[in-house]
Amino acid sequence: MGTKVLLVGSGGREDAVARELVKGGASLYSAIKNRNPSIISLSREHIVCDETDFTRIHKFAIEQGVELAFIGPDPVLETELAEKLMSSDIAVASPDRKAARIETSKEFMRDLMTRYSIPGNIPSRVFRSSDEMKNFLIKNGKEYAIKPIGLTGGKGVKVMGDQIRNMEEAVEYGSSIIERDGRVLLEERVMGEEFSLQVFTDGTHVKPMPVVQDFKRAYENDTGPNTGGMGSISGPDGLPFIRKTSVEKALTIITMIIDALRKDGSAFKGVLYGQFMDTENGPVVIEINSRFADPESMNVLSLIRSNLSDIFHGIAQGNLHMNVEFEKKATVL
Hints:
Blueprint: E1 4-8, H1 12-23, E2 27-32, H2 37-42, E3 43-48, H3 54-64, E4 68-71, H4 74-77, H5 81-87, E5 91-92, H6 97-104, H7 106-115, E6 124-127, H8 130-140, E7 144-147, E8 158-159, H9 167-181, E9 184-188, E10 193-201, E11 206-208, E12 213-214, E13 232-234, H10 244-263, E14 270-279, E15 282-289, H11 296-301, H12 308-317, E16 331-332
Parallel strand pairs: 1-2, 1-4, 2-3, 4-5
Antiparallel strand pairs: 6-9, 7-8, 7-9, 10-11, 10-14, 12-13, 13-16, 14-15
């Protein structure tokens, strides 16, 4: 029997992880919110529960003698699950809550990039007052992306000049976020081609995956609202419309962020990915996330040659020295 691996999550992203783990010889134990028949068929045992119920999942892991764990969904990374598992001597290839703030708090991410002078940052400001935000927008005259500070599932961001048609709508949307969350983040609007770059990291070593572009907008011709993902593509040697130098610079930015987290006392172990915009001045960071991208993970995991269980072991143990290899093929999801 191979390593007993706990997988948390029930979507297509987690199914892609499950398939690779089992293919590599792992014994899979799953905690799923929805009854994904593929994940169930791959698992030796599974429980159906709220994926943020860390107490129940921790108990399940102990009962099954799990040795290694990987957490898929971002809301679970805001819970105590990673810490609970590690306290029970279960290796975890996902970040703890402190490190996961790089995704769960956009304010923390922007502040970290500023404090460590990391390139690719976007001018931004947090507002706790609707009047202050309104006065800033009127006085400044620029277009902004209006974002909640925390997790939105890829659906909470609205951009002036795009989903937001005028100043009145901008103030209304920003004020609704302040009323709900107590604060809102405004980031200057940037233009260019978006791309996703994912990496495996043990907090020091960084192993990049193929670059992917996903499509968020619903409806034909991208006329609808943002979704969690409408599809994604990758090429055999990058993407022809994304400059290779921009991908290289993006990897440098990610590496600097991982180094900054370690120096900041929040060492990041797991999968980290950056959503970048390739502007005329080079790549800028749209967001940083503390898990596999969805759906872009399905592109890269269909190409991976290396044993995913071995990669997760290297991440959890802080010795990810192995080469991580991918097939040079195009993917379309």
